Amino acid sequence: MSNAAPVAAPTVVARAQQASKYYGRGDTAVWALAEVDVDIEGGRYTAVMGPSGSGKSTLMHCLAGLDTLSSGRILIGDTDLSTLSDKELTLLRRERIGFIFQAYNLIPTLTAEENITLPTTLGGKAADRAWFDRVVGTVGLGDRLKHRPSELSGGQQQRVAVARALAQRPDIIFADEPTGNLDSRASTEILGFMRSAVDDVGQTIVMVTHEPSAAAYADRVLFLADGRIVDQMEGPTEGKVLDQLKSLGG
Amino acid sequence: MFKVAVKNLLGHKFRTLLTAFAIALGVAFMSGTFVLTDTIAKTFDEVFSEANARIDAVVQGQSAFESTGPDGSAQRPDIDPALTEEIQGVDGVAKAEPTVFTIGTLLDEQNEPLTMGGAPTFAANWTGVPEIDGFDIVDGAAPEGPDEAVVDQTTADQAELSVGDPVRVQTINGTFDFTMSGTARFGSSGNLAGASFILADTATSLERFAVGGRVQSIYVVADDGVGQEEVVDRVGQVLPDNVEVITAEESTKDQQESITSIIDQLRIALTVFALVSLVAGAFLIYNTFGIIIGQRVRELALLRAMGSSRSQVLWSVIAESAAIGLVASLLGLLGGIALALLLQAGASAIGLDLPTTNTVIAPRTVLVSILVGTVITVVSSVVPALRASRVAPIAALREAATDDAARSIPRLVVGVVISVLGIAAMVNGSADRSLGSAAFGTAILFAGVITLGPFIVPVIAQVLGAPLKLLGISGTLGRDNARRNPKRSAGTAAALTLAVTIITFFAIFVLSFNSSLNAATDRYLKADLEVGGANGFSLIGPSLVDELAARDEVAAVTGVQRGQIQIDGTSRIIYGVNPPGVEANFDLQGVEGDLAAMAPDEIAIDRGTARIAAWGIGTQLEVTYPDGMTGVLTVAAIYSDGNIVAGGDPDSHYLVSDEVFAEHFPANSQFLTRAVVTGAEGVALDDLRRVVEDEAEAFPSSEVRDKEQIKDDANGQLIVVLGLFTVLLGLALVIGALGVTITLALSVFERTREIGLLRAVGATRRQMAGAICAESVVLTLLGTVLGLAVGIAGGVAVVSTQRDTIDPLEITVPPFFVVAVLVIAVMIGVIASLVPAWRAARLNVLDAITVE
Question: For residue A118, which residues of chain B lie inside 8 Å, CB to CB?
Fold first, then answer.
């Protein structure tokens, strides 16, 4: 693993140490993650790539506190997730982590606005109006706020999901194939919003994707295979990523 | 395809179990009712046949016309015991003994009645002839002379009496003291189906238990070799006109029939409640299958795409419901038998001995239970099954569309039309004073409201939204989830609506009746005090009236007797009163003629009866008395409303002099249902009460009450009635709650992805459970509010039809009742949500969000 010293040491927002996840025991054990060490640096956009079954989703789920490790640990800031109860994990997700899933991101009974403010509402707090307006303005949902998900297009629904993740100003946003269900125009839009969130306000984002074109938006790409980080790339382009994937596959 | 049905059942154990349970409850109620009533009937049958086993004929008064006495059998005249001698002289008669059989209450040391769980108490004679006395002495000796009596073993045990102890009994003639010479056991069971007995020798019984020295029957034992029919023929020769003789077998059958008719009424009433539970179960099945079909659209479409025919899909769903229905019915049948055994044990704890060897599980019970349970389940699933069969194969490839058919315009129109028809029938019934039409209208309105349910859901959810918002996001989510599928919510609430409608309807009816009664007491009861039975069962002898009348402190006293005579060819209920005091004690709201001077050959009638029959003062009415005598009663007075005399029963159309009762009625119709007393001028109520209590001491089973106490008593009985009713309908409520639980469980399953998302973005388990709980409360309140609305409308309509009969009519819709029902609904909502909420809270977040 390359370990080039950055110019100014950025803060580490999330960290996996010897993170392992396996199913079964002994020789028959299946390793989803095998002693992964990774630091997610603040204010950067990290993409996680790899073939199906490489462990990229498992890594993300464990980093996000949705899944637990078999051994090793995950830190969000200084908090060791393995020491948290279900309730503490829930509160951590609510306050410090944002999510964008591939689909079914929204609660069908709530309006776009209610979906965006959901984590805040769950915490029993009032939304920060100025920030909310800015986020909504950025993703261009101003006239759609009173609509329910069923009245929105797929692209609009994903924009609501991005707005929800941004609105709570989390330490880190995890995006799981956020453009997997979108056409290319909508994909470009969503990826653009995420990119600008990193550039404009220093949002930390980790995105699992299998599309090189999506990964090209990131600052850094981690490549996983067989539960291990096999390579990483700074300043990716679509072509470089594609080449790298080919070399991994071959 | 049948394999598919079975796999579906086994694959969803929780849902299958709850659905089956809902039906099983109703079936258990029904089979339990059958088993218990059959067992009671059999026990009584055995008791009666045992009682008559060793005699051959019964001589008794001939009932002059169709009537029902206070004990449920026909009103018969008493007979002269002197006939016994003549009967003994008949060739073929071995033995004949007069039998006294009257009501007598044992008293404890405080002079209070020893109540044995409400079972009747009897005073009878010990003839000393073993074939005729159904009892055998267990301890001590048979009673002899005026000081001795025996008590049945069960009662003696319960009262902890031993041989030689003093016993006191109150009969129509007053209070009498005896020494218990022994205890006796009836036949093999020891106890006559819970009834208490005190027995004295014949001479003593005639003096103290009988009225006018007359007896209820004469039992005859024939010589060996003389058959029952034969001895009846021979005895019949020597009897006067209004006395008959029947074989012991016939007598047994008569007794069995009179008790059977009471048990049949009990069975029918309980079966009605069981059916209400089963209908609630039908709603549940219908709704649950509807939801399941909706969730299985893709699977069904796939089956169709692979070549299943429509009818195969249809039959697989029906087979699934038939399997549930059959298993549930069997479980219900077993549960019902267990319930009956439990109640049987409970009955012997209160003195009604129902031997377990008598438990009757009739083939009818098994057949009806299984048939009704299965048929109701299958019928309820037909509509969902048809919908399943209409799933197009292409649906396998589509996203499941929401079922909007439930809120179609035709449904709205039909619902509105039905509701309007129902309301029209209710208004019309109220205007026409037609109780049937008002009740029918209520049923129609109920159907209309159920049809309109899906349209009402959003409205109610909106209204409840405000208070739910106080619960934060959980409340909002709960409200929104409750209204996202209005048809499902409405269907779920329907079973509760049914139960609450009936409870409310009945409550309005009973509460209104009670407050009307209390208002009548305030307005029309002029008397200061009432002497009545302590627990609705009065044992006051007519002598109390004379004793009270003799006291200076008393200005007017009226005893009220109730019985039947035949007027103008029809059997009528009449009330006996002593005429001079009536108007002082009761406000009859205007009397024509001279009621106070009414002679024994005169009658007073109410205005309504006079108008309908076109009778006036001076009209002569042909009557037949219970003793078979005929005569003419002349209308002496016409009064406006006599309900107050009857203590609220709207059947006081005829009043006669108490002398008519004394002369023509049997002993067991002589009891006063109550006596009322007005104090002389200047006598304080407390002083009057002391005087009345002093005289009433002769009948310790009575109670002296002022107006407030009369009303309190009525209120107390009301609460018992309402409580009993609510318990009987409680099962329908439980089934309604089960329906809510099932729907929520299915919804939680359906919304797994959504719940996972909520949990991922920070909903705690508590918040998740709260949302399910809020949804549940919205559903139960929806059902309850609709039930309250229909029940109140129906209750008011039905009660208002009585405005000519009941005066004053007070229609009561007490706020406390409405509030209590709503509070209970919220509690049911919370309880019903426990399991689904727990499941939702426990969902594994990762599994939930990754589910496809």
Answer: 473, 758, 761-762
The three-state DSSP-derived secondary structure of chain A is: CCCCCCCCCCCEEEEEEEEEEEECCHHHCEEEEEEEEEEEECCCEEEEECCCCCCHHHHHHHHCCCCCCCEEEEEECCEEHHHCCHHHHHHHHHHHEEEECCCCCCCCCCCHHHHHCHHHHHCCCCCCHHHHHHHHHHHCCHHHCCCCHHHCCHHHHHHHHHHHHHHCCCCEEEEECCCCCCCHHHHHHHHHHHHHHHHHHCCCEEEECCCHHHHCCCCEEEEEECCEEEEEEECCCHHHHHHHHHHHHC
Residue A178: cis peptide before it, omega within 30 degrees of 0: no
Whether the CB of A104 is below 8 Å from some CB of chain B: the reply is yes
For B320, the 3-state DSSP assignment is helix
Distance from CA of B13 to the nearest CA of A (A): 28
Buried b (16+ CB within 10 A) or exposed e, B619-643: bebebbbbbbeeeebebbbbbebbb
What is the reported pTM? 0.85
- Cα angle vertex B766, ends B764, B770, to 5°? 120
φ, ψ of residue B484 in degrees (nearest 5): -75, -25
Q: Which residues of chain B neighbour A98 with C-beta distances below 8 Å? A: 761
pLDDT digits (tens, 9 = 90+) for B729-776: 888 899 999 999 999 988 888 888 889 999 988 889 999 999 999 999
Closest approach of B470 to chain A, Cα-based (Å):
11
ipTM computed for the complex: 0.88
Give CATH superfamily name and number for A42-65+85-248: P-loop containing nucleotide triphosphate hydrolases (3.40.50.300)
Q: Does an H or E element contain B385, and which?
A: helix B363-389
B641 three-state secondary structure: coil
